[in-house]
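Dear colleagues,

For the upcoming journal club I promised to circulate an example of a predicted protein-ligand complex. I picked one with adenosine-5'-triphosphate because it came up in last month's discussion. The inputs are reproduced below in full, followed by the predicted structure.
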Amino acid sequence: MDKSIEKIVSLCKRRGFIFQSSDIYGGFSAIYDYGPLGVDLKNKISQLWWKEMTQNHENIVGLDSGILMHPKIWEASGHTGAFNDPLVDCKQCKSRFRADEFSDDFESFDWQNTKCPKCGTTGSLTEPRQFNLMFKTHIGPVEESGMEAFLRPETAQGIYVNYQLVQGAMRLKVPFGIAQIGKAFRNEIVARNFIFRTREFEQMEMQYFVKPGFDDDSMQQWKEKRFGFYHEILGIDKSRLRFHEHDKNELAHYAKEAWDIEYKFPFGWSEIEGVHNRTDFDLKRHEEFSGKNLSYFDQSNNERFLPYIIETSAGLNRMLLTVLVNAYWEDKENNRIVMKFHPKLAPIKAVVCPLVKKDGLPEKAREIMYILKPDFKVLYDQQGSIGKRYYRQDEAGTPFGITVDHQSMEDNTITIRHRDTQQQERVHIDSIHKRLMELEDAWHH
Ligand code: ATP
């Protein structure tokens, strides 16, 4: 694993962001558990996405469909069937090979430094990919006679099969979108880079239904909006973001045009989100497999058509990893590590510390907790020296440190310490709430 990713992994464990699954049993491969700070950070990111989709757009509504669905859905989508062997592609000459022709140990085999057997290029082989990545299970009391079912490998299909019900219930007119956040499962054969590629993960997908002919414009708009989300809303450094367009050989069978939004991770440029023009492929297939007419009736023009779909498909865990990498800062001068989260993302907004554990300071600090609690996630900490307490919170990414000292007992003022600059300001207790709001609003990435 890359060195700087290793540092982030260890900070995540130390501070309670992310743990490997089943730790006391030696871990469980490519599955991670989110600790107290991780779950808060993850929720904040997904809430921003949800708000951007369903609140900022009047014509986008939410959905939460099941993880298990009718198995025919996966026949229609093209996820079942076809071949089952892990394959490796040569990006240079486009040849395909069975991965086991190279090695049986896919995880540790050095694909990057292997020559393509056909064209002889080194570094052009992809890591092995499996066509059918779905986890299989059974519904019913007896495995043999039960119905075979699959854990969904993407949330998108739940949207397609519900699209008419949603459209009818909400009286939506094309163009409209349906957004969903939920777990997806893929039996990845090479899972690595911490939470970048895991076997259980969360997707945030929005499927936008448009009239055919309007799809190219819509694609352009969604590309821009989604790119903007990363630097304007999440505060990700723009110079570490880029688009990558899928060329003809990379395009999935369902796509007319596809763009990845990539981030420059310590292990290289990698996809965090895909924006795809899926045409009417999925709805057509579901019409074929379900026997139902899925066309949309456009009253104003008195015509029926199958909408085209522009999909924006993001991985919540990859977005979280992006936020973690982007925030990580080794402040060598002061010998500390700081997670520079924007206050709106920080799992804890402020730590409240009595300078000493006596003279009525803890009680005063508790009073401040009660003032702030209804609106901010605050933490009370009286353990250890004040410097140590601040450094712990720097690693947790807590933007503000509020300290109650002896002067507070005399004039009802406290200090607010700023995480990134370590500067302090003295504020009256009655105005802390307002001041924290101001600081958050005026925050620069
Ligand atoms: P990749 O090529 O990296 O496997 P993909 O092209 O298969 O990704 P999509 O099927 O387009 O990915 O899924 C959309 C998004 O879901 C991806 O951009 C990514 O953020 C997320 N995602 C996909 N597979 C995983 C995984 N195994 N672990 C974590 N996130 C994933």
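Two points we might discuss: The chain has two domains: 3-69+151-326, 337-442. The pocket of adenosine-5'-triphosphate is lined by residues 154, 186, 188, 197-198, 201, 203, 271-274, 313-315, 317-318 (CB under 6 Å).

See you all on Thursday,
B. R.
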